[in-house]
Write a structure and sequence with these properties.
21% strand, 3 domains, alpha/beta, 339 residues, five-stranded mixed barrel, six-stranded mixed beta sheet, single chain, Rossmann fold, OB fold (Dihydrolipoamide Acetyltransferase, E2P)
């Protein structure tokens, strides 16, 4: 029996009036050509909320979604993107993000030093302002050091802003970080912000800091119509309440941008290398010149020059402890990966 006969026998009882044949395969050949979006308008992603991107164009604030071809989490706050569709910004309109421009920088962090998943926070920032309070809550040099390392790793220039200068003297923290070449500014609630404005003008600056240090309060003073929600520090735990739940980019009244980020209680650095850490502790580099070859500079390193510097009162023990907590975690991660 031939193939045609077997097919006819198989479908002998099928009613031809109700039979639904499988659609024929597409005969249109695939093409490697991609759409050209070079003429599509460009905007900056200013915030993201449940899959909706708010994009600041030259003359409108547009709501957009990203196309499937961009993949998951392809755009983050600070990204410059090209849009198609309705870019009027009118209520109820929706545009599409079809292209993300190459980034000049990406600030990343991980949940902790053993977390293998990097979390990109902000794109295209050229300056990072570490915001730390001098009291209520007290300053955390370890956190400052970690954010400094992340800034150097991302190729972003760091600045240190000390808030609540009316409650404590900034001299000690200023003395610790000024020798590193990091600009340090201190502000109180009613202080003139001319110095900070001078540092921010013409830059894209991301603000990062521990919860409750006053980032949102500072943003509201720098950008009067920002309306960022502020909160108070818990008197029992000494921790600030998260008031900013997502990153938001805001245009300065002069020129430039500031990007407010949610307060952090930890700043993992599993994505950085030992060399990046040394950049964050540039004052320690010259103290390691007499270390034995191959010295890891951690707590187990014999005859490390950093221990000698502490014994000769050339290095603050607390700063060495902060450095070794960070680099020790990185060495442990690398050893685990190799094993």
């Amino acid at each position: 029996m031939g193939q045609a006969s077997r097919t006819a026998e198989r479908y002998a009882d099928v009613d031809p009036h109700t039979f639904r044949a499988r659609p024929a395969r597409r005969t249109r050949p695939r093409t490697k050509d991609r759409p050209d979006y070079s003429d599509a308008p460009v905007g900056r992603v200013v915030t993201i909320d449940r899959g909706r991107y708010r994009v600041r164009m030259s003359d409108a604030l547009v709501t957009a979604v990203k196309t499937r071809s961009l993949g998951r989490k392809a755009a983050i706050v600070g990204d410059l993107v090209r849009l198609t569709g309705n870019v009027s910004g009118n209520d109820g309109t929706l545009a599409r993000i079809v292209e993300v421009a190459e980034r000049s920088s990406v600030l990343r962090r991980t949940a902790d030093d053993n977390d293998p998943y990097e979390r990109p926070i902000v794109a295209n920032a050229d300056q990072l302002m570490i915001v730390a309070s001098l009291a209520d809550p007290p300053p955390r040099p370890g956190m400052i050091d970690r954010i400094l390392v992340a800034a150097y790793d991302a190729g972003i220039v760091p600045v240190l802003c000390l808030t609540k200068a009316d409650l404590a003297d900034p001299a000690e923290i200023r003395a610790a970080y000024s020798p590193l070449g990091v600009p340090v500014v201190a502000v109180s609630p009613d202080a003139d912000l001319t110095g900070i404005n001078d540092l921010l003008t013409g830059h894209v600056t991301v603000l990062v800091g521990h919860s409750g240090v006053g980032k949102s309060t500072l943003i509201n003073r720098l950008v009067p119509d920002a309306n960022r929600v502020t909160g108070r520090v818990n008197k029992v735990t000494g921790r600030g309440r998260h008031t900013s739940t997502s990153a938001m980019a805001l245009e300065l009244p002069t020129t430039g941008w500031v990007i407010d980020t949610p307060g952090v209680r930890s700043f993992g650095l599993s994505h950085v290398t030992p060399d990046s850490i040394l950049k964050g502790f540039s004052d320690l580099a010259k103290l390691t010149e007499d270390c034995p070859r191959g010295c890891q500079h951690d707590r187990t390193a014999p005859e490390c020059g950093l221990d000698l510097a502490v014994s000769h009162h050339k290095l603050d023990p607390e700063r060495l402890s902060s450095f070794r907590r960070i680099i020790g975690g990185v060495h442990q991660r690398l050893a685990t990966a190799e094993g």
